[in-house]
What does this fold into?
Amino acid sequence: MSGGIDVTDGWNWRQPQPPTPPSGPSAAGSWWSDALADPWRDPHAPAAVVVPGAPVSSGPAPEPVSDPDAPRRSYAPVLLICLITALLAGALGSTLAYVFAVRNGMGAGTTLGAPPPQTAPSAVQRAPDSQAGVVEKVMPSVVTVRVTGAIGSGFVATTDGYVITNDHVVEGADKTMSVAFSDGTTASAKVVGRDPESDIAVIKVNRSRLSPVVFGNSDSIAVGDRVLAFGAPLGLVNTVTDGIVSALDRTIQAGEPGGTVRYYAAIQTDAAVNQGNSGGPLVDADGRVIGMNSVIRSVGGTETEAGNIGLAFAIPINQVRRVAKDIIDTGKARRTVIGAEVAATGGLVGSGGARLRAVEPSGPAAAAGLKAGDVLTKIDGHVIEDGTDLIALVRKHDPGATVAVEYRRGAKSQTASVTLAEDTN
It folds into this structure.
């Protein structure tokens, strides 16, 4: 072979001779002085510089040195902030959980019905013309009358303390009489005047600046009109019941045997009225007083067994107002008469009517041409069945009022116009 490069397949391979190390003192003292003689050295590997680490000590680690004058850091603010944050996060989480639970119908049980509209009025707000609005307007004018051993009702007629009630409510009243208002306050009272036969009385309350009722017109009401009855039935003060006008000019004779006989040409109503309602107002749908609750019909055998069965009667307010005004102005009520005495029995059997037993020569009946023995069958268009009807319907009118009457004299029916008068006896 020729050339400068020998190629072999290894059969004549020989251990190469290591290079001769350098001589001299510098070579013997260098860290690489034995490198060429290292049998594990790769002659083709690059040289590397190795930096030795810190010497390992066999003793304990030295204690760190701190500055004794440096301020120490407190962990209290950090703990306080963490605590407040945790509390706020817990409260917020509970609130959100409750809101979501309520909205989803959880936690509060089953939700029934739709939510009310946002514009709906609250429970204490009612339109003035609603029944609740009428009650709110009238109630401050209604009082409970407390007499020794009895209780009744009344209503304020004037701002300076005049109150109207039934005569039978204040009958036997003494100095212990008092009234209670709807707000629970009380005041002493005294009797101003009474008219037992019409069952109307006036008392004076020791208080001023009161709220009087609004008076209506009892001649303008009709059967079927809605009414409200106020009072203290069975001692249950501030009670209101409702009903309708069931009948007009229902004539009633009332009174204990041997006592005063009272006559009513009353407004009949089916509003619930019981003992204790006497003297309270009966008002129309606008809150105007049209009558004074006075009498009830009952199936009970005694007064203590009497109770509401839908038959109650009120004195027409036109009559009440006239009599009360007479009592306040003059101390005495005027009584309206026709100037005739009525027989115990009526007309012919089955024919009805009120037979005149006697006629005063200078009285209203005589002036109209009526005579003893005549049977009155109608007055102002109202049918007369007996003497009670005639007396009650006459007393309903004011003295001086002119009424049309129909009567029978023998077999002949006739008419007359009678100007009623005031009883001077």
User: Anything to note?
Assistant: The helical segments are 25-29, 76-103, 131-138, 167-170, 317-330, 364-367, 387-396. Confidence is low (pLDDT under 50) at residues 1-14, 49-54. The chain has seven helices and 21 strands.
